[in-house]
Design a protein that fits this description.
heterodimer, A: 468 residues, 3-stranded antiparallel beta sheet, 17 helices, 10 strands, globular, B: 127 residues, alpha+beta, 4 helices, 9 strands, 20% helix
């Protein structure tokens, strides 16, 4: 990988005066731009010929790793395959050219699709209405909490400002509550990883009239199914609060059980996780929010538009491709795949909570800690073997968390390949720990200095030049 | 292996306090430093800020995670360890020598709720 075009920034390939474009003759005259609006110096743009630009970015893109190039077991992210038919449907010319400001009577097909998708999601979740305005999961959480806040205010119940969040929750839960102007109260987990019901009872006894909602992810962040949901829901409802379901881990439940039936009042879905739309890289997400009958009037207006429509088209294509019968197989297969990996590796990796997991599970590093090889080293070594690293050092409940979520799409051969490599790395940690500690060795860029990167943030060329 | 310095008092959230008269030096334990990994940033309060026992007074960020700091006692911040602003890794080098804030204690009875080195070590072994 000694490619000059890859190893350099486009700015470093720049040659003064070189360009890859020619502008047409100006037939429209010149407009005088006020001096106050003119920049004082030339913009520092890279100057390259077309071929250099093409090679530079093609080489960069060849070094991308995605679910289309290899196994991507990133826990809690549900990096499932995005079927190509989704793309084909989203690219239909009848839909592709839609403009959000187009008159409603010219967009009836699109509105029908939104309504059909809403119907499908209602059926799959047991809730009554969905809004598609939120542009991503965290935006959905905020929308859901604003809905809850609006509901309490409408009843003149102004003091309900506390949101109960389990200590195992995704960081977005407390963050969304804080952005919504609500206060977070943490409920502890038991040693088995589920919510401590006794601690919750204490919280409710103390804070009852102030509780706006409880946010839960089920299965939780350890990939464990919360078994006491009906009791929890009753406790929260009895004190006047609402139940919020974080849809981050909806995948294993798909077709098996429904948040609405468990007593949840409000939830968001990550279409870019459970419903196979592209995920990651800051691409367009979609976080529709569903509510129980009667709560829909409290939806806030978080966007003037219908959200990311093309993402919704992909999700609907996915639902139609599977159909009612096959959508039921998603959850069980995701659970089977995760348990297969967990059981095949738990003799060499530390499994702190040894039970049947759902779609993902968490190891607490290697079983043999004497070698000094950490979860970070294992994750880096996986890159050498052509795998994306799992989620590491999350959840925070363990020191060496390594969280694997294979999704339902992977074949037994792929899972066996991953298991073999994970076992090989565990072996290497004993026989040649230095090899693992200094990994990766086969990637274009070796071990990066995390500490330096966090302390001296250089994210653009100007900063790099200033540093030099 | 983590060190547990005698003579200090420890909280369950892994802060320690070294009491000297009416003042206390508060930092994170060596165990906490080990668990966090390389520390890259320490968020500290200002001098004259009030802190409350059990409540957050700042945060420590490492390459692994950002963790809130909880004050083991109530009182007023009289000094912050400014060296940590530029060299947060001092916490990794010696967590006990590099305290984070110096506090004037408002209620010495709160110290009774904390653990001594032996009890704290037993607590960490359970974690």
């Amino acid at each position: 990988m000694n490619n000059r075009l890859y190893g350099n920034l486009i700015f470093e390939l720049s040659k003064e005066g070189r360009k890859g474009y020619s502008l047409p003759k100006n037939n429209f005259g010149s407009y005088e731009i006020p001096a106050s609006m003119m920049r004082n110096e030339e913009a520092a743009l890279p100057e390259c010929d077309e071929l250099t630009v093409v090679r530079h970015y093609t080489n960069l893109s060849n070094n991308n790793f995605g679910v289309d190039t290899g196994f991507y077991p990133l826990g809690s992210c549900t990096m499932k395959y995005n079927p190509k038919i989704n793309e084909e449907m989203a690219a239909l010319p009848q839909f592709q050219g839609l403009h959000p400001e187009q008159p409603a009577n010219t967009t009836k097909g699109a509105l029908a699709l939104v309504s059909l998708l809403e119907k499908s999601l209602c059926e799959l979740t047991g809730l009554a209405h969905f809004t598609f305005k939120p542009y991503a999961g965290a935006h959905g959480e905020l929308t859901g909490l604003m809905t809850i806040d609006n509901y309490h205010r409408s009843r003149g119940d102004m003091q309900r400002k506390k949101v109960i969040v389990p200590d195992s929750a995704h960081g977005t839960n407390p963050a969304s509550a804080a952005v919504c102007g609500l206060e977070i109260v943490e409920v502890k987990s038991l040693a088995d990883g589920t919510v401590d019901f006794e601690d919750l009872k204490r919280l409710v006894a103390e804070e009852g009239p102030n509780i706006a909602a409880m946010m839960m992810t089920n299965p939780n962040t350890l990939g464990l199914f919360e078994t006491r949901i009906p009791e929890i829901a009753k406790l929260i409802h009895d004190c006047g609060g609402l139940m919020y379901y974080d849809g981050a881990n909806l995948n294993p439940m798909l077709g098996a059980c429904r948040p609405g039936d468990m007593g949840f009042d409000v939830m968001h879905i990550n279409l870019h996780k459970t419903f196979s739309t592209p995920h990651g890289g800051g691409g367009p997400g979609s976080g529709p929010v569903g509510v129980r009958e009667g709560l829909q009037e409290f939806f806030p207006t978080v966007s003037p538009y219908h959200g990311n429509f093309a993402v919704m088209m992909r999700a609907y294509a996915y639902i139609l491709s599977l159909g009612k019968e096959h959508v039921k197989e998603v959850g069980p297969l995701a659970v089977l795949n995760a348990n297969y990996i967990k059981e095949s590796l738990k003799d060499v990796y530390e499994l702190p909570i040894d039970t049947v997991c759902c779609h993902e599970f968490v190891f607490d590093g290697l079983k043999d800690k004497s070698t000094g090889v950490t979860t970070m080293d294992v994750a880096k070594r996986l890159l050498d073997y052509g795998y994306h690293a799992p989620t590491i050092y999350f959840p925070l409940l363990f020191h060496e968390s390594l969280m694997v979520e294979p999704t339902e799409n992977e074949s037994k051969e792929t899972l066996d390949g991953f298991i073999a490599v994970m076992r090989k790395i565990a072996e290497e940690a004993k026989t040649d720990p230095e090899l693992v500690k200094t990994a990766p060795h086969n990637t274009p860029i070796g071990r990066v200095d995390d500490v330096l990167a966090a302390k001296q943030v250089i994210v653009n060329y100007r900063q790099l030049k200033a540093k030099a | 292996m983590a060190k547990f310095e005698e003579g200090l008092l420890y909280s369950e959230s892994h802060e320690y306090i070294r009491v000297e008269g009416e003042y206390g030096y508060i930092g994170i334990s060596d165990y906490a430093q080990h668990a966090l990994g390389n520390v890259v940033y320490v968020d500290m309060p200002d001098v004259d800020d009030d802190v409350t026992a059990g409540e957050e007074f700042g945060a420590v960020e490492s390459v692994k995670a950002a963790s809130d700091l909880f004050s083991p006692v109530s009182g007023t911040v009289v000094e912050v360890n400014e060296a940590l602003e530029d060299t947060p890794e001092l916490l990794n080098e010696d967590a006990f020598a590099n305290w984070i804030i110096k506090v004037q204690l408002s209620d010495k009875a709160e110290l009774d709720n904390l653990m001594d080195a032996k009890a704290y070590q037993a607590f960490c072994e359970k974690e």
